[in-house]
Design goal:
With about 675 residues, this protein is an alpha+beta fold. The protein has 3 domains: about 130 residues, no CATH class; about 160 residues, no CATH class; about 230 residues, no CATH class. Strands 15-16-17-19-20-22-24-23 form an 8-stranded mixed β-sheet, sandwiched between helices. Helix 2 packs across helix 4. It starts with a strand and ends with a helix. The relative contact order is 0.09.
Length: about 675
């Protein structure tokens, strides 16, 4: 039932506070008594904006009313109180709380575009629900959905975040928690009150049928007879001293119980896996030094302590759920039910309300979304982080097409040449002349295999295009830092990404492309060293004299193993006019970077290795004009999901062609 807010003795108001100091109030318009009553055709979401300073005010008559909202548990605001009964934070009557604020001293985690539930419990014991929708500032809903789906299609799980908590680190990728597993845990936790009630009832009153069994016994003993017994006597008069007696027993091995057992066993295994994951993660956070459990994040001691407490809480809940489910295994009927995989869902699974509920929960467990009333916002990554990953994938796609086109050109050229031309063959099969620019062999002039610390993902040789054993795409597990493994433990370079094994994208991830004599290394979120000694020709061939050293994407180009330059790319999830705030950073990338390997020259100091700095930003209204800043080697390029990307693609292709032409002019 739709309940207008004006009829209630309370009100909930969100207030946006913009940079110019202006304020915008948005009052929640309607509530429902049960979230299952929410109908998008009738009820309207309360919309708030991401990344804008935001406050929430709860007004009510009298005392005792409480306001709860997804995300409160991540705030450290002292104005929030703790409900010790269910361990949730809430806002009391006539109070205000800051949900998000741009601050250097306080680390607020922004609400992610999506749905969040808000509920109000009144002093007379009634509960009211509403849904709040966080919308993107820089993208329309369809553009945001396209970006999420494209990232998920390439890198299953990479678009998801593990925990939406204010005291969680900026990025929880390093925790190595499978986001799909965490989402399944959340579904079970949300429904577990229903699950526990149903399982407790089934432990005592499970569905069954009466089965008849017949056995021959002396005729002078009491016996139960039926039509089958009489028919047997008539057909076998020679057994007049025996009678076929019918015995009745309760049969629990029914198709619906077989499916029920399979569901419960699956949930128990899932919770066991989740507990093991929590144990590994907690161990990694608490050990001072461990090679097996090292993380790529550094946390203040207090924040790490709170995170460990949070993970222990998840572990404890999973253990309790696992224990409750395991109790049903001691029921008298459970062992009589066999393990059989049902080809069809038995009709009883939809007739008996208990079986139907468990089946629906199991379907939700492996669906694409959480139930709407658990808050979808805690699953997706921050939009700015997601835009970085999506932009990186677009860059990889352009380089892939660039390499394929050059491979086609080389293939056409090679058809008219003698097959004994070893030099051309070496180019086409992905190998290159290892002699340096000075004609001398040296360790630096030969492309050696990357060490573990280089975080090499894979090398793609376009000479092997079409070969399933060597043609790796960006969707492979390789882009996430490790090879995919089959269930038997074997490794296959052709295996595709699996949601059950998805791992977060690693910092300093590198993908190597090779086509003919040209090689191109794409590094995601790589750190540029601050001194010459830390450079490495085929790892990080550059260093910086400035303080800005972490571009989102770096493209390093090589021709015949000679380094010819770099394209820096930064993704900025903001309006174009706001990019001027980052001009010092962008200028540092363009002017302060040096390389001792550029063109293989001895007097490398006079060469600037960064050919161009590209700044990619979303333009939700479809703008495609490139803005090249005069004299700075910096270009502002719009790149928007679900919009035409021809300008971006042509810009990046043109820059790579320019670098190859300049290398040719230098005699490379």
């Amino acid at each position: 039932m739709d309940i207008p807010c004006s009829t209630q003795p309370f009100s909930v108001v969100f207030t946006h506070i913009f940079q110019n100091g202006s304020r915008e109030d948005t009052e929640v318009a309607s509530f429902v008594e049960h979230l299952s009553d929410w109908d998008e055709t009738v009820h309207s979401y309360t919309e708030i904006r991401e990344n804008v300073n935001l406050e929430l005010r709860f007004r009510c008559e009298g005392v005792g009313a409480k306001c709860y909202m997804d995300g409160f548990d991540g705030l450290t605001d002292v104005r929030l109180m703790v409900d010790h009964e269910n361990e949730e934070n809430y806002l009391g009557c006539n109070r205000l709380v800051t949900l998000f604020k741009h601050s250097t001293s306080e680390n607020y985690y922004p609400y992610i575009p999506g749905l969040y539930s808000l509920r109000v419990e009144t002093s007379d014991g009634r509960t009211f629900y509403t849904l709040v929708k966080v919308i993107s500032n820089r993208l329309f809903d369809d553009q945001l959905e396209t970006m999420r789906s494209e990232v998920e299609e390439k890198l299953k799980g990479a678009a998801l975040d593990v925990i939406r908590k204010q005291h969680s680190p900026k990025s929880l990728e390093a925790l190595r928690i499978n986001p799909v597993l965490f989402r399944q845990y959340q579904v079970l936790q949300h429904y577990f009150a229903d699950i526990y009630a149903i399982v407790s009832d089934l432990a005592q009153k499970v569905r069954s049928s009466v089965a008849k069994e017949y056995q021959m016994q002396p005729a002078d003993k009491p016996a139960h007879v039926d039509v089958v017994s009489i028919q047997h006597r008539l057909k076998r008069p020679d057994t007049e001293n025996l009678v076929k007696s019918v015995q009745k027993r309760i049969n629990y091995d029914l198709p619906e119980n077989q499916m029920l057992k399979a569901i419960l066993e699956k949930w128990i295994r899932l919770l066991h896996e989740f507990v093991e994951t929590m144990d590994r993660t907690i161990k990694g956070l608490t050990l001072k030094s461990s090679k097996d459990y090292s993380f790529s994040i550094s946390l203040p001691l207090e924040r790490k302590r709170r995170l460990v407490e949070e993970l222990k809480e998840y572990r404890g809940k999973a253990m309790r759920m696992n224990g409750a489910l395991s109790q049903v295994k001691s029921s008298h009927w459970y062992q009589e039910v066999s393990y059989r995989k049902a080809l069809l869902v038995p009709k009883v699974m939809f007739v008996d309300v208990r079986y139907r509920k468990l089946y629906q929960i199991d379907q939700a467990l492996y669906g694409d979304e959480l139930p709407v009333h658990t808050g979808l916002g805690q699953q997706w990554k921050r939009t700015d982080q997601l835009y970085e990953i999506w932009g990186w994938l677009q860059v990889v796609g352009v380089v892939e097409e660039f390499g394929l086109e050059r491979h086609r050109e080389l293939s056409k050229f090679s058809k008219g040449l003698d097959q004994g031309d070893a030099g051309l063959e070496g180019s086409l099969d992905g190998t290159a002349d290892v002699d340096g620019a000075d004609g001398e062999d040296s360790e630096d002039n030969v492309a050696r295999p990357m060490r573990l610390g280089d975080r090499l993902v894979h090398e793609w040789s376009f000479g092997d295009w079409g070969n399933a054993e060597r043609s790796y795409r960006v969707g492979d597990r390789l882009v996430q830092g490790e090879w995919p493994r089959r269930r038997d433990g074997s490794i296959s370079s052709g295996d595709s990404l699996d949601a059950t094994t998805a791992q977060p994208i690693a910092k300093d991830n590198m993908i190597q492309f090779s086509f003919g004599a040209t090689r191109l290394h794409i590094t995601y979120d790589g750190t540029i060293p601050g001194n010459l000694e830390a450079t490495e020709k085929f790892g990080v061939p550059i260093y910086t004299t400035g303080t800005n050293n972490n571009p989102d994407v770096r493209l390093d180009l090589f021709v015949r193993d000679v380094y010819i330059g770099t394209i820096m790319i930064d993704m900025k999830y903001r309006k174009k006019h706001a990019l001027t705030d980052s001009m010092r950073q962008l200028t540092s990338y363009a002017d302060n970077v040096r390389s001792p390997y550029i063109y293989g020259k001895r007097r490398w100091q006079k060469y600037r290795p960064v050919h161009q700095v590209l700044v990619l930003y979303p333009e939700k209204h479809g703008g495609i004009e490139v803005d090249e800043l005069d004299g700075r080697s910096i270009s502002l390029v719009p790149l928007t999901p679900a919009e035409d990307q021809t300008v971006f693609q042509e810009t990046l292709l043109r820059l790579m062609e320019e670098m190859l032409l300049e290398a040719e002019e230098e005699g490379i």
